[in-house]
Amino acid sequence: MSILRKLSTNKVALFGLIVLVFLVLVAIFGPYLYETSPWKMVNRPFLPPMENTDLMLGTDTMGRDVLAGLVYGARISLLVGLISTMIALLIGVPLGATAGYFGGWIDEALMRFTEIFQTVPSFALAIVIVAIFEPSVYSITIAIALVSWPPVARLVRGEFLALRNQEYVLAARLNGQTNRNIILREILPNTLSPIIVMASLMVATAILLESALSFLGLGDPEIMSWGYMIGAARTVIRQAWWLSFFPGVAIAITVLALNLVGEGLNEALNPKLSGKRES
Amino acid sequence: MSIQTLFYIAGRLIKGLLVLFVIAIFNFFLIRAAPGDPAKVMAGEAGAADEVFLQQLREQFGLDQPLYYQLWVYISNLVQFDMGQTYRQQMPVFDLIMDRLPATLLLTGTAFVLSLGLGVLVGVIAASNHRKWIDSAISVAALVFYATPLFWLALMAVLLFSVFLGWLPAFGMETVGANYTGWDRVVDIAEHLVLPAMTLGLFFTAVYARMTRTSMIETGRADFVKTAKAKGMSPARVTFRHTLRNALLPVVTLAGLQAGQMIGGAVLTETVFAWPGIGRLMFEALFQRDYNLLLGVFFISSAMVVLFNLVTDIIYCLVDPRIELTK
């Protein structure tokens, strides 16, 4: 893979990639290697970090292991981030492609629709959707997807607008290929790199959104998540700083790693757009 | 003002109203799509046991009537600023939101001005030192702030400036029971404003700094900038009189589009700092499961964004004649 090779020459992006791979491994295998349940009371409440070698990060208000919470929380963060981004792509790419390829009133109508979604305060919309449909992994994922697709639609539309009159597309049209074929086989493959870059940055935003929803108490009550841990520790910040500190660091590292990889991909895939050309 | 400009503004106004109409319809169907009796959903956990309150809701929203009639009742109530009552406060939803709105406007307004000013300044510094250590340092800092959850940043600010250092108050908008008046009250509110406005502002500072930097570097390659340099103009003058003036437009445009994001940030910041605005009200509505109030806050905050976009559009079209009026 030449993308991977290009990415590996970019030290910052490589660092992000290594961190990301580590986080994915924790998300997949962590719960098998670190068997303490994040819900189980293992010691006295409010045990500060570093005091007990078995509980390096201390315990929370109910005597639960903070480190176990971090390990188990990685899975939900990455999963929600990944799946909501995929759903957002499934909405945004066809919409943007249709608008950009056909143009005219179809474009006009679809873009007006997109604009409404862009005007609405997205986090508030996500809160409303999750609250009314009861907090669960599903409602959270859907809500995040519903507020994240408009930029995808705009990006894909722009790419299609720029490409639809290229010679190879005209040739395909003269060949008698169907619109569906031209969109899927001729144009779409040429728009993939900006979509990939945007998707990697969207996963990061989705993770931030998920943590913010859980922080407000809109997390899935069955699953331990980083945002929930911070939300539950919010009122005891004066007594126990570590309860909110560590999960926040975990979120920031994950999001930062994804952003670094996203920017690295951007430089590797779109050298012209990265702003690093020039004299 | 030309007739063309008036048409443009009227067009924008109609578009904004259309957006609000769609949101109202969305709210309407959301309540009815939720599982269970819509009256109970609206009343939330606390009010659902009170049969008198439920009956009141059913009558007000015509919940036993056909759907199209309900929609008609809902929209005509909304046009008269009637969004129903809250159970807990026994107050009209609209009045409660209007009560809380000034606090949010103060917080988001301060954060917006702060982040735009600071972000542009930092972005200009980074761009004029392109590829030197200070540029890298600023880029790294912006990346880190961009990745940090806002609510966590708020909590850490409380921990550092309020708990450990004791410099600033961490909760509320005024000192409880102090009953300051006049200038003392202004100072008191300003002290309470520092931490929430800083945390909300820092995230957007990172966003605007990155945008300004990119825009400055791109504008710096334009021919008129080269000409200005070639005729021997001082670098500072080129940066501020030529590059910045032209680089600023896309930044301000994007900043205007971020108004909706600011509302989301306000929900989180106000929750942490117990700032008595509509963001905190949204959290309280969640906590009490008062969905009618929740949807009311959602609608009004969307209306604020629409209004803000309208105002920026009008300012633009008055300030910059290059903007296409037909769009």
From TrEMBL, chain A:
Q: Do you know which SUPFAM superfamilies this protein is assigned to? A: MetI-like
Q: Which residues form a coiled coil?
A: none
Cellular location of this protein? Cell membrane
**Which Pfam families does its entry note?**
BPD_transp_1, OppC_N
Please name the GO terms of the biological process aspect recorded for this protein, alphabetically.
transmembrane transport
Transmembrane residue ranges: 12-34, 76-102, 123-149, 195-219, 240-261
What the entry lists under InterPro entries is as follows:
BP-dependent_transpt_permease (IPR050366), MetI-like (IPR000515), MetI-like_sf (IPR035906), OppC_N (IPR025966)
Q: Which GO terms describe its cellular component?
A: plasma membrane
Q: How does it sit in the membrane?
A: Multi-pass membrane protein
- Grouped into one coarse class, the protein's main location is membrane
Q: Where does the ABC transmembrane type-1 domain start and stop, copy by copy?
A: 74-262
Ordered alphabetically, the record's keywords are: Cell membrane, Membrane, Transmembrane, Transmembrane helix, Transport
> Does the keyword Ion transport belong to this entry?
no
User: What's the family?
Assistant: Belongs to the binding-protein-dependent transport system permease family.
Supply the name of the protein: Peptide/nickel transport system permease protein
Q: Which organism is it from?
A: Marinobacterium lutimaris
UniProtKB/TrEMBL annotation, chain B:
Q: What is the lineage of its organism?
A: Bacteria, Pseudomonadati, Pseudomonadota, Gammaproteobacteria, Oceanospirillales
Which organism does this record belong to? Answer: Marinobacterium lutimaris
For this chain, the family text in UniProt reads: Belongs to the binding-protein-dependent transport system permease family.
Q: Which residues form the ABC transmembrane type-1 domain?
A: 101-316
Supply the name of the protein. Peptide/nickel transport system permease protein
Q: Which CDD domains match?
A: TM_PBP2
The processes (GO biological process) annotated in the record are: transmembrane transport
Q: Which residues cross the membrane?
A: 12-31, 105-128, 140-169, 189-209, 247-273, 293-319
Q: Pfam families given for it?
A: BPD_transp_1, BPD_transp_1_N
Task: Please classify the protein's predominant subcellular localization into one broad category.
Answer: membrane
* One GO CC annotation: plasma membrane
Q: How does it sit in the membrane?
A: Multi-pass membrane protein
Question: What domain of life is recorded for the organism?
Answer: Bacteria
Cited SUPFAM superfamilies: MetI-like
Keyword annotations of the record: Cell membrane, Membrane, Transmembrane, Transmembrane helix, Transport
List locations, semicolon-separated: Cell membrane
